[in-house]
Write a structure and sequence with these properties.
By secondary structure, the protein is mainly alpha-helical. The chain has one domain (2-280). The chain has helices at residues 2-16, 41-61, 71-91, 96-116, 149-170, 172-181, 192-237, 242-271, 274-280, and strands at residues 30-34, 37-40, 126-130, 136-140. A hairpin with a 2-residue loop joins strand 1 (30-34) and strand 2. The model is unreliable at 1-26 and 276-286 (pLDDT under 50).
Length: 291
Amino acid sequence: MSRVTKFITAVSLLGLSGLPARAAVDASATQFELFGLPVTNSIITTWAVALALIVAVRLAIGSKPTLVPSRGQAMVESLIDGVRELVEPIVGKRTAPAALPLLLTLFVFILINNWSGLLPGVGTIGMESHGEDGSHHFEPFIRPFTADMNGTIALAVVAMAGWAVLIWRFAGPKLILHDLFGNKANRNEVPAAIYYFLTLIFLAVGVIEIISIAIRPVSLSFRLFGNVFGGENLLHGTFFAFPFYFLELLIGLVQALVFTLLVSVYIGLICNHGDDHAAEHGEDHEPHAAH
């Protein structure tokens, strides 16, 4: 924990030296085009974050993990173990090994992108343009990826795609359909009339659940975007005052945890009770084969 505390303190001190922003930003700005596709200021930031993460992990672990870990390798392993202990009870022991790479990547990637807005120059260095109506617009050269709606939507789509693959692999179509539309009552414990009535109720609930699943990418992306974008404007408006800076440091961590835990819950809602389902039916604990 002392290493983590030192890292957070270093990030805090680094961010406090950032330049005050000229104005809040309300949209991403295209910096250049690559193969005919626009590259925005938030994409540049996420490329830099991804490269920094890759380099940091390689430097910490070295060319090959060792049986007796170095300090850097121990820190990486501690992070992995911490996330595993957090999500394993939620997604289930069978699903955890396959779900951990997705959830760990989402947590770390979102966390560093959230904190990138606290670094000097991110969202504060750019060009100011004047509109014909006399309005002023400030376009930074780089800004946080998670403060751009396009970025949070992309993260939500990737997360839900991973969710779909995991539930198909570890639950299978039969259990998915039963979880969504199946009658959860025990046929031997309730009268037939009530059982068939409950079947209709569970079918209706399944339709509502499908609508809820379709809305999940929207809620994931809007929640993350709203908090990070709001924090960005708050910091710019208060010239990076220390209380608000520290608050955004915590919010960045909390929002990364919330996003990761919500995806874990979505996976666990279908996959976690798969262990009990397999035990009741005498099935093995291997993932279902996709047909």
